[in-house]
Design brief:
- By secondary structure, the chain is mostly helical.
- The protein is built from 17 helices and six strands.
Length: about 550
């Protein structure tokens, strides 16, 4: 089935709905079928809008997917579609039956059953310009005649909405989507290898698996839609042939595709067998890997009976795998040889065609040896006659000029000599001017080089002078820094000497003061002793 959206109202998300006003949408959802007779332009405008909606929804597979209808190329016009188009609030597309019937009339929609059963190409119907002219010119004219009661009213206009809807229900092929899908499939096929006979042959199953998802962006066609595409490519585009389950696809041929032969059946059968063997081999390898994992697990868990069973199974699968690999190798080698033989046949056919063409050309009377010799002899005679005539004409012309004017030759010779002398002088003059220009250019070059050399020397001297000045300045700064450092050192030494002297003086003063204090204490002590002696004497 096609990859249809899960949201029921996905059709309503198309840009066609957001680009019209609510009032206009009400008109489009009304039963505008009777307007075909009363207002053909309005009817046509509504029809164009609905046609763009249905075709856009078809390309995106927005239609409900039902039995036999994938929702993309094949659509089912019924109650499910009406529900998918229902507007919020319950608005139903009442005029949908009129739209579908008109699209069937102009071949935009093709009934599925007649499309699959018909042997006539869909491109054999009247052209689109003819139908547009019929709609835009004939319909208004017919409406005018109806208003004058010259012709009877259109039976379609007189029919009811229910009868139009009943007539419209069914499964249809969307022509524009079908054409795009077929073109996309052909474009995708051009990107695949197609150098051998095998690349051109498909079964229905392999064609479906190869192209179902390549027909429309983001859509995978259903089986029924693939059948529709195959029918279109075979009958209408004439790029493939079908015979039973064999499909021969060759969109590159400029002539009719060769009929499907027994060789094609055999090659396709071998290709199908080869694919089946490859699938079986992949499955066997997976089973062997699974049995190996189970065997390892059983051994780790000391389940020897189970491990032995897995070992036997793995051995069986390995034996079968070896047989399938041998079979695949045999089929593959045979298929390569068949492809090589088919290619050799095509090459030999080309050789035969080119040989026959060359023989036909060489058998032409114009290329026979006698005719060639005669033609070349005649050409040589004609060229000799032409040269002789030219010589006679030249000599006769000179003789005629000399007879008419005997001095003309002398005059012409003098003029030629004068012209030659003039050309020589002009050449010498040009040579002298050239030498002067060269000398002037050399002088200018020497002056320029000398000037550049002088400027270079000046720049070098200026740079050297600047360097010397910079070095002298740096040297002076260094001397100044050294002198300042020396002065600071001398000041520091002097300061330290003065501080030392002050400390020494302070120490001497302290010693003297201590000595004076000691002498004073001794005097006081002596005075007290003498006082004690005097007191003792007086007491006695």
């Amino acid at each position: 089935m096609s990859s249809t959206p899960t949201v029921t109202h996905s059709i309503l998300t198309l840009p066609q709905f957001s680009s019209v006003s609510p009032a206009r949408l009400i008109v489009l959802y009304s039963d505008f079928g009777p307007q075909k007779g009363s207002n053909p332009p309005g009817f046509q405008a509504n029809l164009v809008w609905w046609k763009s909606v249905l075709e856009a929804a078809s390309e995106k597979a927005y239609f409900p997917s039902t039995e036999g209808a994938g929702g993309a190329i094949v659509i089912d016009v019924g109650d499910a579609l009406v529900e998918a188009l229902r507007q919020e609030g319950g608005g139903r597309a009442i005029g949908l039956g009129s739209v579908v019937n008109e699209m069937v009339s102009d071949q935009s929609l093709l009934p599925l059953s007649s499309f699959l059963s018909s042997t006539a190409s869909i491109f054999s119907v009247p052209s689109i310009p003819f139908r547009i002219a019929s709609t835009l010119i004939v319909s208004p004219l017919w409406w005018g005649l109806q208003q004058l009661n010259i012709v009877a009213s259109d039976e379609y206009v007189q029919s009811s909405t229910a009868s139009r809807w009943s007539k419209a229900q069914g499964k249809y092929v969307v022509k524009s989507t079908l054409e795009k899908a077929a073109s996309n499939i052909i474009s995708h096929f051009q990107t695949l290898p197609h150098s051998s006979i095998t690349d051109m042959l498909f079964s229905t199953t392999s064609f479906r698996s190869t192209f179902a998802s390549k027909a429309l962006p983001g859509v995978s066609l259903s089986n029924n839609e693939i059948d529709v595409v195959l029918k279109f490519l075979e009958r209408d585009r004439k790029v493939l042939l079908r015979e039973g389950h064999v499909i021969k696809f060759d969109p590159f041929t400029t002539s009719s595709i060769p009929p499907i032969s027994s060789v094609d059946h055999g090659v396709l059968e071998m290709s199908t067998t080869l694919l089946a063997l490859q699938t079986q081999i992949s499955e066997l390898e997976m089973k062997i890997s699974d049995q190996s994992n189970k065997l390892s697990y059983s051994l780790k868990n000391n389940q020897k009976p189970t491990a032995l069973s897995h070992l036997r199974s793995r051995k069986t699968y390995e034996d079968l795998l070896a047989k399938r690999l041998g079979s695949m190798e045999i089929v593959q080698n045979v298929l390569i040889k068949v492809e090589t033989a088919a290619g050799d046949i095509e090459i030999l056919k080309a050789y035969e065609t080119s040989t026959a063409t060359l023989v036909t050309l060489l058998s032409s009377p114009s290329l026979q040896r006698a005719h060639i010799d005669l033609t070349m002899d005649n050409m040589a005679d004609a060229l000799a006659d032409h040269a002789e005539i030219e010589a006679v004409l030249v000599s006769g012309g000179e003789a005629a000029r000399n007879a008419a004017d005997p001095d003309a030759a002398l005059i012409e010779e003098a003029e030629l000599k004068a012209e030659l002398d003039s050309m020589v002088r002009e050449a010498e003059k040009e040579e002298a001017e050239a030498r002067e220009r060269v000398a002037l250019a050399e002088k200018e070059r020497s002056e320029r080089l000398e000037k550049e050399e002088t400027e270079a020397r000046e720049r070098i001297e200026a740079a050297e002078k600047e360097r010397l000045e910079l070095e002298e300045g740096e040297e002076r700064e260094a001397r100044d820094r050294v002198g300042k450092l020396e002065e600071e050192r001398v000041r520091a030494e002097r300061k330290a000497e003065m501080e030392k002297r002050e400390k020494e003086k302070s120490a001497e003063v302290a010693v003297i003061e201590e000595e004076d204090e000691g002498e004073s204490e001794e005097v006081d002590l002596k005075g007290e002793k003498e006082e004690e002696k005097r007191e003792k004497v007086l007491a006695e």
